[in-house]
Amino acid sequence: xxxxxxxxxxxxxxxxxxxxxxxxxxxxxxxxxxxxxxxxxxxxxxxxxxxxxxxxxxxxxxxxxxxxxxxxxxxxxxxxxxxxxxxxxxxxxxxxxxxxxxxxxxxxxxxxxxxxxxxxxxxxxxxxxxxxxxxxxxxxxxxxxxxxxxxxxxxxxxxxxxxxxxxxxxxxxxxxxxxxxxxxxxxxxxxxxxxxxxxxxxxxxxxxxxxxxxxxxxxxx
Length: 221
Description:
Layout: E1 8-18, E2 21-27, E3 41-44, E4 47-53, E5 58-63, H1 65-70, E6 81-86, E7 105-115, E8 118-124, E9 138-141, E10 144-147, E11 150-152, E12 155-160, H2 162-167, E13 178-183, H3 185-194, H4 210-215
Antiparallel strand pairs: 1-2, 1-6, 2-5, 3-4, 3-6, 4-5, 7-8, 7-13, 8-12, 9-10, 9-13, 11-12
Keywords: Repeat, Riboflavin biosynthesis, Transferase
Catalytic activity: 2 6,7-dimethyl-8-(1-D-ribityl)lumazine + H(+) = 5-amino-6-(D-ribitylamino)uracil + riboflavin
GO molecular function, one term: riboflavin synthase activity
């Protein structure tokens, strides 16, 4: 688990194909690795990776085919800057929100607009994630815990202050950029809870529809 508060901007030193997937070497910049051991988790752009080597200037991790297919990790190359966060501990301040490091989908930066000293980004999420994104709710973008300022269909607006721009890779975002998205864990658990006994029934998708909510008293006419 993570908090979505980025601890360091690192960079990709190498991406090495290995038997159909990839081993990544991440240089970790100012991230303190003194308490990191083999097998520990580190989030790279919001993707939870396991340290399998600790050469001193960073760490190496294996990236599975599943992760490559479901995230924007395929867009990285040698020299790419990345957001880094070590796994939280019982004494970690939860300054962001609970983040699992399991990416739900890949979004796209639609626009970038200056707003005084801040920058507003409009991001388009995959349609299947739109129902989990709420005004003033939390979302993780490339591992950064952020507050949604507006929602329009599958698009949402973020207002990024100068500190966040300087401490994450968001300053480099431009329209067309693909980003890793993780929706709020509570939204996913709430969806499952609302299913009640129907949660045990096989399904190829969500059973939460407007008619389902109305029939079970969650909507009032």
